[in-house]
Write a structure and sequence with these properties.
This protein is α+β, with helices and mostly antiparallel strands and 103 residues long. Helices cover 49% and strands 16% of the residues.
Length: 103
């Protein structure tokens, strides 16, 4: 369907943006993209910094995920436009650089 195709395109676009920015993520088929950080505190600090940039995401850490696999969960939608995705990717790259996640 058209919505499913748009969701898949948005997911692929977002993952490619993360890859280009050097942000670590767990690849898969889902429209839920985990940005892997490893550290629980870092996942919370990054989620809060992204919120300050206008991007609402959730940081997950143990016991929700295994120890050492803390992450930011990004849930993409067919309703997101390319402008939305570009804005989110720019915020991830900026915050990632500020926090030393991106070189």
């Amino acid at each position: 369907t058209e919505l499913r195709d748009r969701l898949e395109a948005n997911t692929a676009y977002f993952k490619e943006g993360l890859r280009k920015a050097g942000l670590p993520f767990k690849d898969g088929e889902s429209a839920i993209v985990p940005v892997m950080l490893g550290d629980a505190k870092l996942s919370q600090v990054m989620a809060n910094a992204l919120l300050e940039e206008g991007i609402y995401v959730i940081g997950f850490f143990y016991p929700v995920v295994p120890k050492g696999e803390a992450r930011i969960r990004v849930q993409l939608s067919a309703a997101h436009t390319q402008a939305h995705l570009d804005r989110a990717l720019a915020a991830f790259e900026k915050v990632g650089r500020d926090l030393g996640v991106v070189a």
